[in-house]
Amino acid sequence: MPELPDVEGFRQVLVSCAQGKVIRRVDVRDAGVLHGVSARRLREALEGRRFTEPERHGKWLLARTGGPTLLLHFGMTGRLLCARPGDAVEAHDRVLFGLGGDRQLRYRDQRKLQGLWLADDDSGVARLLDRQGPDALAVGREDFEAALSARRGHIKTALTDQSVLAGLGNLLADEILWRAGLHPRTRADGLSETERRHLYTHMRRTLRSAVTAGCVPPRDAWLTGHRDDPDPMCPRCGTHLRRSRLAGRGTVWCPRCQPEGT
DNA sequence: CTGTATGTTGGCGG
DNA sequence: GCCGCCAACATACA
Predict the structure, then answer these.
(1) Which SMART domains match (predicted)?
(2) How many Å from the CA of A10 to C1' of C12?
(3) Within 7 Å: CB of A110 and strand C?
(4) How many CB atoms lie within 10 A of CB A107?
(5) Is A193 one of the catalytic residues?
(6) For residue range A113-135, what is the model confidence (pLDDT) as tens digits?
């Protein structure tokens, strides 16, 4: 699930559930999601602190406390949710944060592909995020174009490479390329001035809608609404969609709207 | 059993 | 060094 729009939604959960609240109890149910920190050290670092305004960079969520920062990454199946302390704990609830105001923030994740990190200070945060390119929602047109021009590989690979641009995942990349009319194998540094501009514009529009929805919505008018159909058709022109493997992921595109070459 | 899944990393060969 | 591809990580589901 989690790409930039989902993580932005989790940031909102953190704001409404936990911002300003004291962390009374950190309950690590599965230490397998902790990276570079023990359950005990996590508890000692966070209990008694208060969550302040959280930030997001790409697919990373930064839960600030005024002291150490908790960094969360959701992999493919992670979520953040707000519960009551008495609510039944589910099998995949890995860490529970008991808060003031009778709230409980939960990191739930089925597959444990990523997890939680703790940074003592800003330099610790910077170390953890040092491979991240500019955030896809915050990046300006010029930096976006410069990042792509520096890449000789396929455009889809560049868009989903977090060190080039942070936040886009497999669904968003396919969606944006479809809207921009670009074949996913187009060379990133081979885009015309116009194509680069369109790509940036469509990335912004797609991200804005998706952030509002809290996910890449599987709407009928979106490519994402059809990628899992047995015989998927392009919602714009009715052509049979193509499927293949690119950048290590299942890739869907419309051969008519996104012609190869040129 | 096989293949797939919205993520990331590290290794291999070109 | 850059690039594409693949396995690995852990788990569920068709």
Answers:
(1) Fapy_DNA_glyco, H2TH
(2) 23
(3) yes
(4) 25
(5) no
(6) 999 999 999 999 999 999 999 99
